[in-house]
Amino acid sequence: MRLAVTTALDASPDLAEAARAAAARHGAPWLDRGGRRLPDVAGASGAEALLVVGRRGVALFAGGAEHRYHAGMGTLRARRLARGERSTAEPLLAAAGLRPGDAVLDCTLGLGADALVAAEAVGSGGRVVGLESSPVLAAWVAEGLARLSLPAARRVEVRCAEHGAALGALPDRSFDVVVFDPMFRHPAAQAPPFEVVRRFADRRPLSPAALERARRVARRWVVVKDGAPGWDLARLGLEPLPSSRGARRLYARLAAAP
Description:
Number of helices: 10
Distance between the termini: 40 Å
Oligomer: single chain
């Protein structure tokens, strides 16, 4: 999908320069808004999606609608951790056992919610890399995270890459924890605000081969998330970790390769 970058209406010179810089970072053309409506900007350029840089953040214009970036509940979860509320129910941290200073590889970045929580948990001495195969989502999330007020958001390194190929190129035992949160293949499991992610994300199911590559890259373990009742975990032969009754998300954990 062809992505271009523009600005919100009445952009200042500084904002226009920021948009040009974003375009350069993601190898996308810069389009002067010139007071035009977004459909007109996209139509005149042939762009299928527009990254719109504004004063209060970034939005993605696609499919005739503008979607402002947000990390969903990830922002609230990360803020709770920043306040020292680590005991708050946070199944990702329980499943991944993240520690300050850890290096985490999120193989299915999406909107970056789990990567944001992981970045807060591992602290300034840690490292979080998020892989996103969709160039559109990778650009939107990278620019959105960079503009969040949480310091942890700027500790997430976004890479546009398909996780299978990326894992194959990484050295053995190069990350403490590797995380997968594959796109739920059943629409009912996806909240309406995240349908824009469903539009662009790679919907291929997680493969056993990718899990084996992840085990080689991990130093401690690989964590896989699934929506209840855990059909994909069952497909992969994974046993869910104990969870609270009625939990909507299930986690499984595999030990790193010996």
